[in-house]
Amino acid sequence: MNKKDQLRKLLLDARAIADAAEKEGRDFTAEEREQVEKLLKAAQDLKAEIQADEKDAKLKQDILALDAEFAPAPKQDLPAGQPGRGQTIGGRFVESDQFKRWMEQIAPGGHVPESTHGIHSPPVEYKSLFKDLITGVDDESAGAFVETDYTRIYESLGRYPLSIFDLINRRTTTSDLVHFVRQTQQVQEATPVAEANVTEYSGATGEISGEKPEGATAFEQVTTPVKTIAVWIPATKRALSDAAQIRGLIDQELRDDLNEELEDQLINGDGVGENFTGLANTTGVLTQAWNTDILTTSRQAITTLQVTGRARATAWVIHPEDWETIELLQDTDGRYYWGGPLMRGTPQLWGVPVVTSQTVTQGAGYLGDWRKMIVWDREQANIQVSDSHSDFFIRNMVAILAELRAAMGVTRPSGFVEVPFESGS
């Protein structure tokens, strides 16, 4: 059963439960509600997988199309007596595999219809063109030019490791606006109540009204728009002929740059213009005051999150230099608190996992329940190639564009604490 059939079955199962409850004129039972929620969650996850598969398939088709259009032509040098040897450049062009395949596509019967417009043949590359012009088309003749052996090795400069994505919730949306409700006031009026001893309470001594206190709560609706993060680079069509290089350029540069910018926006976005409102600029995030040293301050931050934020931490997010400072802390006997260089394990601070990220400003970090930060994918990263930019068409150049569309929100700001790791920060 393919993924689309699985998705259809999940939705039909959920619909069957809903139809049964509607037919009987009742609400869901607790068990039915749990089943429906599980089915819908599985359906949403499967839908996201299907969308990702379709986008990956399209990307592969685009790359294969580019490779087919710009890949170097195979050598046309054939054994003596066969078409190609001793032919002119024009003769070798019409005998090339690229030209023959193209003709089969536009003229299956060998005849190009007069109504056909806008046809464009693929380029045919002659590796020994200069040799042909100088010494003839016979490759056995000595030539004056030597071709360089390109290794096709591509080595990038490297980027910061991404880590916050592994902590937060990732969901999808089909809208340009995402709404969620955030509670701003909790019900805190509950108190023990004595049983009433009079039918009509007058306030006289000894009378008990038995009146229960009224609670109060408040909510706010938050709307976060979908934003676009994009980047493009120019390239020549000649550069595109090297499929290995362009694949590395697309995957290692454009996609990584999008994700790196998105992670930075999650923390540092200022909400101005097309920027997200990141955690550092979200109203309601708790703050921990510096007290004595790093260990004391960080331990008190856990208490602040539990008592004031009423949340349990899932991780610290700390700048690598601050984590280095913490790991190098020693007791009065010169022993490392974290076991030293031979005792590496899962990074933890006061029992809470530690994630290092360069997006956090050095000198302060965040402790929080990172499930309360959500990214909604409107359109996952995709790549497009076009020569329709400026005068690129007549210059044999193309623009390679990468972009993603997403929205983000902190559903519970008090589930995070900003913690200083040095005095005065």
Write structural notes for this entry.
Among the domains are: about 75-125, no CATH class; about 225-420, 2-Layer Sandwich (Major capsid protein gp5 fold), CATH 3.30.2400. It contains 9 helices and 12 strands. It has helices at about 5-25, 30-70, 90-95, 95-105, 130-135, 235-240, 245-270, 295-305, 320-325, and strands at about 170, 175-185, 220-225, 225-235, 285, 315-320, 350, 350-355, 365-370, 375-385, 395-410, 415-420. The strands form 3 sheets. Strands 5-12-9-6-8-7 form a 6-stranded mixed β-sheet. It has a 4-stranded mixed β-sheet with strand order 1-10-11-4. A two-stranded antiparallel sheet has the order 2-3. It starts with a helix and ends in a 5-residue tail after the last strand.
